[in-house]
Amino acid sequence: MAKIHPNPSANTCSSSSSSSSEKETFTVWMKSLVCHGNGCTVFNSNGQVAFRVDNYQQRCSTKAFLMDSTGNILFSLNRKKLGFGCWEAYKWSDSNVRAEKACFRVRRDLRKGVCCVVSDDGYCSYKIEGFEGKSSLKIRDFEGRVMAEATQKQSSQGVNLGDDVLRLTVEAHADQSLVMALVTLYGLINNKL
C-alpha cells in the first residue's frame, strides 16, 4: 500500500501553524483520525500530523474545528444560518475564541461556479478557485498571486491515490493555518467534508 504522506526527503521545513520562509508541501487526507468522525488529516513533509479537522457530528454539518497536531483549536468554522454557501471563521488562542466577530467569511460566488470569495470587513481578500469535477484548487490573494495550490496526490510511480488525497503546496511566508482554514471551508461549501 502506498504511503499518503509526502516523501520525507522532499522538504524538511516543519512549521505547521504559522508561516515558513520556504515553500511547504502537505498531504491532505479527507479522512478523520477520530473514529466515526468526519473531517480530514493533514501531514507535513516529514509524515507527521500537522493539522486535523473534525466536526464530531455528521458529514456536511454546520460547524467544524481546525486543530494543530496537538489538538489545540486554531479556527472554528461555522455555517451561517441564512446564507447559501456562506461560512464564518473564528480565530482561537489558548482554547478560547479570540473575538466575537468573525475574522473572515467565505461564500460561494454563484456567478463563477466553484469559485469562493473570502472577505473581511466587506473587502475581498482572497479567492478560492476550484475546478469542476477535479480535486484541485488554488488560493489567490487580493493581488492575484497564488498563495497555495492543491492537486490530486500521486504516488512516486505516478498513480493517483484517489479523490480524497491531495497534495497541498503553500507558498513561502503564507500563513499555513489560514490556508488550511480556507481549504477546509472550500471542502465544507462543496460538501466534501
> Gap between N and C termini, in Å?
24 Å
Number of helices: 1
Mean pLDDT: 78
Order of helices and strands: EEEEEEEEEEEEEH
Task: Please give the largest β-sheet.
Answer: 12 strands, antiparallel, barrel
What is the oligomer described by this structure?
A: single chain
Secondary structure: number of strands: 13
Strands of the largest sheet, in order across it? Answer: 1-2-3-4-5-6-8-9-10-11-12-13
Shape: globular
Binned, the helix content reads under 10%
Uncertain parts: 5-17
Beta-strand portion reads 35-45%
Specify the structural class.
Answer: mainly beta
Calculate Rg over CA atoms: 16 Å
Question: Could you explain how this protein is built, in words?
Answer:
The chain is mainly beta and about 190 residues long. The chain has one helix spanning about 175-190, and strands spanning about 25-30, 40-45, 50-55, 65-70, 75-80, 85-95, 95, 105-110, 115-120, 125-130, 135-140, 145-150, 165-170. A 12-stranded antiparallel β-barrel has the order 1-2-3-4-5-6-8-9-10-11-12-13. The longest helix has 14 residues, at about 175-190. The protein is globular, with a radius of gyration of 16 Å. The relative contact order is 0.20. Residues about 5-15 have low confidence and may be disordered.
